[in-house]
Design brief:
Layout lengths: L2 H9 L4 H22 L2 H18 L8 H20 L8 H9 L12 H17 L2 H11 L5 H8 L3 H21 L5
Helix pairs in contact: 1-2, 2-3, 2-4, 3-4, 6-9, 7-9, 8-9
Length: about 190
């Protein structure tokens, strides 16, 4: 079933929309959640929460492509769950480590940018990612989108952890320069 047909089912408030979403994107949603949470039960819960959030968001939205829409919802729900799970008394995870690494590229993490700034930042980040060599780009995304550990990335790329760390450090330095060049406070 196409994305447009699934969106139409949501607009008609047809419960088959959830079933079709599960068939088409359920594996991807669980993959995104599991990559961040490393727990199958949490990933299943996030998938269900993603379907509910989509049900409540469509209508009024008509998101296309759906894969990005569901991936974004699942990622945000997973990050919220990871933050809850990794509170001081519950242990740690890759989530705070990966975010700490990116803080060197961001000026004031507490300042709330307006919509125009967010769009400009998104465009600058996408342009930056296109400049990276394929492996560096994939490592960057694995680390900062999926929150993979350095060890997992090294295993995936058949590389040493040292190589992954240096690749990511160079990418962060290049990102910082790119953001400065684009006029962002870093």
């Amino acid at each position: 079933m196409t994305d447009e047909m699934i969106v139409e089912l949501y607009w008609q408030r047809d419960e088959r929309a959830i079933h079709e979403t599960e068939l088409t994107y359920g594996g991807y949603i669980r993959y995104v959640a599991y990559a961040i949470l490393r727990d199958e039960r949490d990933a299943d819960e996030i998938a269900n929460d993603t379907y509910l959030k989509a049900w409540n968001s469509i209508p009024p939205q008509r998101p296309l492509p759906l894969k990005a829409f569901f991936g974004r919802i699942a990622r945000q729900l997973s990050l919220n769950r990871a933050e809850y799970n990794t509170a001081e008394k519950r242990g740690g995870s890759q989530y705070p480590l990966a975010l700490d690494e990116l803080l060197e590229c961001i000026a004031d993490k507490d300042a709330a940018p307006d919509a125009a700034e967010l769009i400009a930042l998104r465009d600058a980040l996408n342009a930056f990612l296109r400049t990276l060599p394929s492996d560096a780009r994939r490592m960057f995304i694995r680390r900062y989108w999926y929150m993979d550990s350095i060890a997992d990335i090294a295993w995936t790329f058949a590389a040493s952890e040292s190589r992954v760390k240096s690749t990511l450090a160079r990418a962060r330095a290049k990102l910082r320069k790119t953001l400065e060049k684009e006029g962002f406070d870093v």
